[in-house]
Amino acid sequence: MNHFSKLGLSPSIIEVLDQLGFERPTPVQEQAIPLLLDNDPTDLIGLAQTGTGKTAAFGLPLIELIDTKNKATQALIMAPTRELGQQTAKMLVDFSKNNRALNIEVVYGGAPISNQMRALRKPTQIIVATPGRLLDLIRRKAVQLNNVKYVVLDEADEMLNMGFKEDIDSILSHTLEDRVTWLFSATMPPEIRKIINKYMDAPLEVSINTQEKINKDISHQYVTTKTANKLPALKRFLDLQPDMKGIMFCRTRRETKKISDELGNLGYSVEALHGDLSQGQRDAVMGRFKSRSMQLLIATDVAARGIDVNDLTHVIHHTLPDQLDSYTHRSGRTARIGKKGISLVFINTREGKRITELERKIKVKFERIEVPGYEELRSTRINNWVQSILNTKVDKRAEKILEELHGQFAHLSKEDLLQRIITTQLDQLMVKNTSEGNLNETHRESTDKRERKRDSSGFNRYFVNLGLIDGMTKVDLINFLSDVASIDRKFFGELSLQKNCAYFDVDKTKDRGISNSFRRIEFEGRSIRVNRDDDRNKRTRSSWSKQKDKSKPKNFKPHYKR
Ligand code: AMP
């Protein structure tokens, strides 16, 4: 039996919920649905955050209560962001699958208004909208709100944070005096209380114990590291947990772009979500994130609002939000609908007291954890590789290739063969044994300072005019460099492979004459150049990829085709 049937919903909705896999109501649904159905019309306050199932808590009663024979707009749902609006509308469309006479439209800023005006010409009983765009449509007389009986203010605290207070006032003045208001909010700041006092009459209240939920399902952790080391530290967490799927919050758009560029250049599967993206670009980023091809979405608080992804393992705070309330919002993206999650905060040595403040305020205990060390990374990487081999199902094509080898490996012992296979994988399996030096290399700082650090790490950095465009992988390139320069692979450090060039570190006790070794070496008819990357002028590593055309080493031939 579907447990929703006890809440007073009609059989056709229960059937849809069955199909959607909604078997048990969440606490906010269990409380709100019967209240709204049994007490119609009533005002309602729902203290619940995203991820608690609040959309169905108001959406299902709304679908039951709308009169589908009446073509006028009867319900208005206001949401702070287009993403939340779109997700809410999609859920309502899913819930009303068995009710073809019900029309739902979503309107939001950042998309052509003309299409939305056209869509609204057909009878639309429920409009989901962001406040700014709705006001625009009201002014253009593209919507008629004088039959609206139900207004839902979803994520009301976020709408106020985003400065929609006046828009909301103005919109509500276009609706009927006797309409009801259902207000959902994760927090109850005084501004929300004012809205409640002004627009609501003896509202019923439902509240899910947010504290309890956070305590139960989310592990709150923090690491203390220098601000400049946050990114290198993050890389280690990403390396250690290839299955991580998370959102990292930054304070500014610039930060999201910079971090995603830096990590992207290093081959991590990350993307930025920020307000400078067009709607199409945002949808594409979200599509890739939801389809699991991305390990980390790097977002600002505003851009991430309303994102509905249920299987996040981590929420990472590159910087703590200014408002500690937002911490609850951010961390609520993980551990949704009964799953477990980790909320990991990066703080610098001066921010320790903010953790204590948070612990007191939201009544959770934070666990201090360490940035994974070299040995941990190394053994995890090797173990992951071993596990992936053990878990591999043998492909028929492998059998065929084995036959074609005609026993070419027969003279090798198992040990010898394994050692050779491992050697081909060294680039994947090794972690650079220069913890401090490497930690300090992926962030912005003055060239001089970086230079000193690199020197103290025992490596010199070189440039080579071979890159991805030449079909190179990191392993190929290290093998090639090591063979030509006669330097054992183990003396190579970090390698950054870019489109048409690469930068690599070599142990500075082993790099004498390395540039000379490549003097007469050609690759597919082209001279290879290996130069010390000392005269990089004022470049920082994070900007190499963008600036490389302007700052090429002397002998670099820029235009070549394969
Ligand atoms: P919300 O808090 O409304 O944003 O919902 C979060 C997610 O939980 C959405 O993806 C819903 O589809 C899902 N969800 C909501 N209620 C249930 C339920 N009772 N059973 C299973 N999934 C649910």
Which key features would you list for this structure?
single chain, 562 residues, alpha/beta, Rossmann fold, 4 domains, seven-stranded parallel β-sheet, 20 strands, 41% helix, disordered C terminus, binds adenosine monophosphate
What's the β-strand tally? Answer: 20
- Small molecules bound in the structure, each named once: adenosine monophosphate
The largest β sheet comes out as: 7 strands, parallel
CATH superfamily of the largest domain: P-loop containing nucleotide triphosphate hydrolases
Shape verdict = elongated
Question: Would you spell out the secondary-structure blueprint of this structure?
Answer:
Blueprint: H1 11-20, H2 27-38, E1 44-47, H3 54-65, E2 75-78, H4 82-95, E3 104-107, H5 113-119, E4 126-129, H6 131-139, E5 150-153, H7 156-161, H8 165-172, E6 180-185, H9 190-199, E7 204-207, H10 210-217, E8 218-224, H11 230-240, E9 246-250, H12 253-265, E10 270-273, H13 279-290, E11 296-300, H14 301-304, E12 314-317, H15 324-331, E13 341-347, H16 352-362, E14 366-368, H17 374-390, H18 396-404, H19 414-424, H20 426-429, H21 435-439, H22 447-456, E15 459-464, H23 474-485, E16 492-497, E17 502-507, H24 514-517, E18 522-523, E19 526-527, E20 530-532, H25 544-547
Parallel strand pairs: 1-6, 1-7, 2-4, 2-5, 3-4, 5-6, 8-13, 8-14, 9-11, 9-12, 10-11, 12-13
Antiparallel strand pairs: 15-17, 15-20, 16-17, 18-19
Bound molecules: adenosine monophosphate.
